[in-house]
Amino acid sequence: MDVVDSAPAEQPSESRVLMHVVYGLHTLAWATVGTLALIALVINYIRRQDDPNPLHRAHHRYMIRTFWWSLVWLVLSLPLFFLYVLPGLLAYAVVGIWYLYRSLKGWMRFADSRFPDNPPVDVP
């Protein structure tokens, strides 16, 4: 006969749930032409300094950097549309795939309670 552990499961903190929601918004941003990314970016900026957990702050910074670098690459590849539509579409597709990769990579690392890149210097 199997013994079932009757201890209550630890509830995830509100901050942890919010991080998963924000990563979900960033990941689905391509389907809304970036609207969800803007909403997630605002949440990242608001919550970045308020969160006492260094892991969460590092992930907020990671998502903010991912958004702004994606925007820089989209603006820089905009002139390719003037050459012909195909090079511009290819450049935007590459940036979109990179954004999706960074979002999924960060989300998986957050789910494993790991820092997005390397841990910050002030974290032991």
Strand content: under 5%
Low-confidence segments, given as residue ranges, are: 3-11
Number of strands: 0
**Alpha carbon gyration radius:** 18 Å
Percentage of residues assigned to helices:
55-70%
Give the overall pLDDT as a whole number: 85
Count of the domains: 1
Q: What is the helix tally?
A: 5
Distance, first to last CA: 44 Å
Instruction: Characterize the overall form.
Output: elongated
Describe the main β-sheet briefly: none
- Class by helix and strand content? mainly alpha
Helix-strand topology string? HHHHH
Task: Characterize the structure shown.
With 124 residues, this protein is mainly α. It has one domain (14-111). The protein has helices at 14-27, 35-48, 54-76, 80-83, 85-111.
Write a short abstract of this structure.
This protein has 124 residues and is mostly helical.
List keywords for this structure.
disordered N terminus, mainly alpha, 66% helix, elongated, 5 helices, 124 residues
What's the layout of helices and strands?
Elements: H1 14-27, H2 35-48, H3 54-76, H4 80-83, H5 85-111
Helix pairs in contact: 1-2, 1-3, 1-5, 2-3, 3-5
